[in-house]
Amino acid sequence: MPTMFRIFAFLSPCALWVFLMRDFVFGRIPVNMDTNTIYGVTKFYFNNLLNGVIPLWEPFVSLGRPFYAIAICNLFNPVTQIIPLLKLAGINYANAFVIYMVMYFFIGCGGFYFLALELFKDRYMAYLAYLGLLFSSLGASMFTQMTFLEIVVPAIWFFYFLLSFARARKQASFLGLSFTTMVLISSYLPFYFMTVFLCFLLVFIFLYTKEVPRFFSNLYRFCLKQWRLTVFCFIGILLAAVPLLAYKILDASGDVVAPGRHCQYTSAQECYDRTMGRQGGMSYDEITRSGTLGERLDTQYLFGHLDKITYGSDSFLFLPLWIYVVLGLSLFLRLKRLTVLLSLIAAFTGLIAAGNATHFFGFLYRHIFFFAYFRNLFFLGAFLIPIVILLGVYQLQMLLNVRSRNAKFSVPTKTKMIILWVIMAHALAFWFLKHFEGVPKVSYLTLGFSLAAWCIFYLGIFRFSTKIWTGIFAVLLILQPVWILHAYALSANEFASVLPSMHVTPVFAWVRPLKPAVNTSRIYQFVHYEDFWYDMSMTDAPPKVGFPQSTTRWTFDLSEHTPESVLANYAQFKIVLYDDSDPVGKPVSGPNRELSVAYFDVNTLRLKTDFSKPKMVVYNDSYTTSWKAYLDGMPVELIRANAAFKGIKVPAGEHAIEFSYHPPGGTWVYITATAALFIFLLWTVLMLNWRL
Amino acid sequence: MLKVIFSRNIVWGVLLALLLSFSVNWRLCTIERGKYLLGIYYNGYFQNTSDGIVYKDYLKTHGITHEFIESNI
User: Fold this and answer.
1) Of these four, A85, A435, B14, B24, which has the most CB atoms within 10 Å of its CB?
2) Contact across the interface for B52 and A308, Cβ inside 8 Å
3) Cα(A37)–Cα(A58) distance, integer angstroms
4) Domain count within chain B
5) Do B33 and A309 touch (CB under 8 A)?
6) Could you give the CA distance from residue A617 to residue B41 in angstroms, rounded to a whole number?
7) Domain span at residue B70?
8) How much is the average pLDDT of A492-507?
9) Is the CA virtual torsion A110, A114, A116, A121 positive or negative?
10) pLDDT tens digit sequence for A410-448
11) What is the DSSP letter of A183?
12) Residue B4 lies in a domain
């Protein structure tokens, strides 16, 4: 019975969350904003994987470009591998992707429970922390900003393993630390986590001066004693880092440029110079012009208009109101080291995320290299959610101890004084909320119930068990968020539409469309993410380059020096044939006796030729030095043709030609990273001995 | 006595609040948030009206007038 009860206690809030978010979970409302792009990348990856190809090139957009997002979308995580499994089980990609996201979120909440348990050594408090995270904006924001989960979920588990390793140096904790590090490196840019970890380290060293040397000497001794395990873990981390390194090598080769990073807010000349100059990272101005927490976060919307949060924006950030109530109630408690630790990490992280609104980020930008690689500083805001919840639950634990250790407590010592403070604190909270417009009634209701609960608790009118009190606090915690999530789902209904989600076997189209595909999905009215729509459906986008996040340097250069219509008219034909008598070139609009497609996938194009005289075949797909050409199976020179495309000289008669893409590391990089992560996950799980 | 008073959460809370208040350029935040809500960062135009009441209220409560937009945003 207790086990069944515990399972029920953990699963029923998840079921409630799924019920509230049912329109998203069951695919009525498609994923939006950055989650839309991540879905596009994920669908493209697994669709091709199930076709037997690890995609390294995107031939459908920007006249062909490297599949740059392969290293930053959590594609090698063992949890993500559920997507192709679900697809094989008959579920479409969009639904499989949402199931994966929801699972990942619940795994994060589970990790948060264990972290809180390790921190507070109290199952009930850990459970309330679990509920707090489950019903914060972290989960709901997954449908617009999946990156939050990509960086926060492994970080939660990392800190859990770090804490358990610090308490008892077990192999399982060490393995868990290695595994979560591998996930953090391979899921998204690890710089966000590194920033929070540096904040933690700095504050921890300052506050726990005695414990720090002990921890590091224990770590050193553990590594010496378990040197085989240490070496193995080190290799695992290296393997997980290789996909990101492979992209870095590709970037360093000069073949790839990132106009999307440099052209959004600069002049045309500056955009061109910075893009072609491939200056590492971004300038301070480029980073701070948008995407900072200062831009996204406003106290007004932490409390007011929570029913009006639009699905057309990704700045959804809220915490259960009761967390703030608890933090307010705890103002006269004795200050503890853990309170200082958590609040300072939150403060530093928030100040860095505020970008140019403070001097912190500017200082770090000048002195630490990786701060030049941030794009959206507001991602750091996602870390504030679990930190503040931990802070709130810790204060709750101390508030509950006030009654049991009443005699030792100095301020206030008498029950009457405590009750007076409880009433005053709730009245202040009521007064505070009245300053905001559009505060929902449920917030006031939460305040009222909270006041009653605390009075009953301190007066000791009913001697409820800890379980009952946990239940009461759980209701107080989730009452307001349940209403907010319900309102969020209702207002998002206007976005109901369908994204490409069926399995596709890509077909080589000889001609690119000049007009964009008709796309009625309302989510594309907000951010121009149509590129990812073409990747999802694996159909060609119009022959246009623009300022994508990634493209080849020659294609970008060409697009900057050629009128858009001229480039489109030329590049709409993917194959153009030249010979000595026809220097203007003859575009090919379909297969014929001379030329036909033998094989096509996203990394490779094989053509069969039967020319009457030698010809130059130009494939109007972007050139990079990683593309190779073969004639009858033998490598031949690949010519950069017409400034940005691929060309090969073909003799008369029957021949087979091939263009194939071989970037640094090839496909093995991704196979080994996935395998390493899977092995480490299995090993860690086998070594652990969890109890709820 | 002082130790008792200063070792309370409230003192720490006030210190943190002061740190945040004086470190952050709130006016800049307002300007940046105005740009974001107006949709300038999305598409370069004032087209983010679908943010509905949040967008409109923000402009109202933060005194973002046409003059403010012209001179700051």
Assistant:
1) B24
2) yes
3) 14
4) 1
5) no
6) 42
7) 25-73
8) 89
9) positive
10) 445 668 888 999 999 999 999 999 988 789 999 999 999
11) H
12) no
Q: For residue A70, is pLDDT > 70?
A: yes
- The CA distance from A310 to B58, in Å, is 14
Which residues, in sequence order, are CB contacts of A319 under 8 Å at separation 6+?
A132, A136, A137, A302, A385, A388, A389, A392
Least confident of A16-25, A540-549, A635-644: A540-549
* Pairwise CB contact (< 8 Å): B33 & A332: no
* pTM for the structure as a whole: 0.93
Distance in angstroms (rounded) separating the CA atoms of residues A36 and A541: 17
Give yes or no for residue A247 having a pLDDT over 50.
yes
Q: Are A371 and A365 in contact (CB under 8 A)?
A: yes
Could you give the angle at which helices A33-50 and A530-537 cross, rounded to 10 degrees? 20
Helix, strand, coil % in chain B, rounded to nearest 5:
80, 0, 20
Per the rule left: phi > 0, alpha: psi between -120 and 50, beta: everything else, A424 is alpha
More confident site: A407 or A54: A54
Sheet of A604-611: strand order equals: A595-601, A604-611, A653-661, A627-631, A634-636
Q: Give phi and psi for A339, each to the nearest 5.
A: -60, -45
Task: Identify which of B8, B16, B33 has the shortest CB distance to residue A334.
Answer: B8
Q: Check whether the bond before A412 is cis (ω within 30° of 0).
A: yes
Q: What structural domains does chain A harbor? A: 2-253+290-493+671-687 (no CATH), 573-661 (2.60.40)
Q: In the 8-state DSSP scheme, what is residue A644?
A: T
> CB–CB of B46/B38 below 8 Å?
yes
Distance from CA of B26 to the nearest CA of A (A): 7
CB-nearest to B51 from A313, A357, A525 is A313
**DSSP H helical ranges for A289-320:** 293-296, 300-303
Whole-angstrom Cα distance, residue A194 to residue A105?
A: 21
Taking alpha carbons only, the member of A508, A595, A535 closest to residue A55 is A535
What's the confidence (pLDDT) of residue B73? 58
What pLDDT is recorded for position B35? 73
List the single range of A89-93, A315-319, A445-449, B45-49 with lowest mean pLDDT: B45-49
Residue type, A426: H
Collapse the DSSP code of A620 into the 3-class scheme (helix H, G, I; strand E, B; otherwise coil) and give the result.
strand
Sequence letter at residue A206: F
Report the mean per-residue pLDDT for chain A: 91
Share of chain A above pLDDT 70, in %: 96
Q: What is the pLDDT of residues B9-53, one digit of tens each?
A: 999 999 999 998 899 988 888 877 777 776 655 444 445 545 544
The per-residue pLDDT for B39 is: 60
Residue B62 lies in a domain: yes
Residue B8 in tokens: 């309370």
Distance CA A250, CA A242 (A): 12
pLDDT tens readout for residues A558-569: 999 999 999 999
pLDDT > 70? residue B1: no
Q: Is residue B70 part of a domain?
A: yes
Return residues 424-463 of A near B (CB < 8 Å). Answer: 437-438
Q: Are A641 and A570 in contact (CB under 8 A)?
A: no
Q: How many residues does chain B have?
A: 73
pLDDT at residue A369 in the model:
87
> Of all helices (H) and strands (E), which one includes residue A41?
helix A33-50
Indicate whether B31 belongs to any domain: yes
Interchain pair B32, A290: CB under 8 A: yes
0.90 surpassed by complex ipTM: no
The tokens describing A3, both together, are 């086990």
